[in-house]
């Protein structure tokens, strides 16, 4: 399966992978690949988004994603405004829409939003004229993470089509898994997900993946093994008896990595819980591409901002 | 669409041959020469000029490729179509500092591409000098920019289209002037 890249993105926003056609995904990945060169220059900055204003509206803690967007914005010469919910009017009870409308009154071109509730970016996308980029909404989607994972796989393995990708861990609370399953299956990869039954949401196979309840079954013969963080802070109650028991059954150990293909990639969106979902020997081992994922994140976010700056089509949010 | 041929394969070869000689004469120290093609058709032209210069001096000058897309003045809201131009490779195998860079492009028209190329190049270092070589100069400049080496100056109307086709990128070789037929 070879997908020809689209000439442009149809929407004014990027709220989820679900809105993207395979051709649009290809365009985003091709553009991101070209953006990587900028990081190697003596002057790591291009004037493409000069005079554009980006509001980074992070209503939930984030280090990697927030920094990554900020670096991407600066490399494209856009002006960034950073907003976090503490110390602002959110603490005084302002609604999300009111906050966003007030920010929009200052004429930003982009609003990058991270929010703990699914659908928050979609609500903004419908209400605002600015381009809205989803930087993670609840347990729903995290499109730029899936794009950077796909870029990493494509560069290491040559293609996405035909790859067998195992994703394991906290499937119930993970937005990374949703965006990844949609993207990878749309691009012709086979996706297997695995986790303890208490963390496998019913109906997840409808996204286009195989479901396994033993980590070994999902990893066997895989090209890529992607571990998800156990999000202890999101769980009202523990969904497994102890962290130690989780590691025994679902931790990625050097022995379990051997079940995958010999040169399989080990990935993790971060932040890692070492000794819970992944063993340090694996996280720091030769097959790990975890830090390359972070590097690729900047290029992917540059591609998203650059391509959205060109178009002002209709909102695609449902 | 009516097409009139301006240069055939032999015409292009002769023009490049003359440009190569002029570049050598003007540059002086050919060890400093760095031919940088502007994506996309400037790149094969830069390679051809490098081979012609090598045939004269016995030493092939450095060749690079430059993508100017992110430096254009028409990205974002200035574009009519909702379409950002595609990015291409920039490949500068060695540093441009202290070198005599000769930018190579197929057609010189408004001069806006050259302005963007100058800005792009400056972000990679500080060349000793920058020159400009183009296969076709079709006039209608919108910026105070002139070429140092011109293959063929072709007077055109703004409504006409100059089509450069190279065997490396297009499978055919030649330069044509195309215009819409008058309706009637």
Structure description:
The complex is a heterodimer of chains A (318) and B (184). Chain A is an alpha/beta fold. Chain A is built from 11 helices and 9 strands. Chain A has helices spanning 22-35, 64-75, 96-104, 120-127, 143-157, 175-186, 215-219, 243-250, 254-257, 280-283, 290-310; strands at 53-58, 79-84, 110-115, 131-137, 164-168, 190-194, 210-212, 224-227, 265-267. Chain A has a 5-stranded parallel β-sheet with strand order 7-6-5-8-9. In chain A, helix 6 (175-186) links the parallel strand 5 (164-168) and strand 6. In chain A, helix 1 crosses helix 11 (290-310) and helix 5 packs across helix 6. The two termini of chain A are 29 Å apart. Chain B has 184 residues and is α/β, with parallel strands linked by helices. Chain B has a single domain (2-179), classed as Rossmann fold (3-Layer(aba) Sandwich), CATH 3.40.50. Chain B contains 4 helices and 8 strands. Chain B has a 5-stranded parallel β-sheet with strand order 3-2-4-5-6. In chain B, strands 1-8-7 form a 3-stranded antiparallel β-sheet. In chain B, helix 2 links the parallel strand 2 (33-38) and strand 3 (62-66). Chain B is globular and about 50 Å long. The two termini of chain B are 14 Å apart. At the A-B interface, helix 1 and helix 11 of A face loops of B.
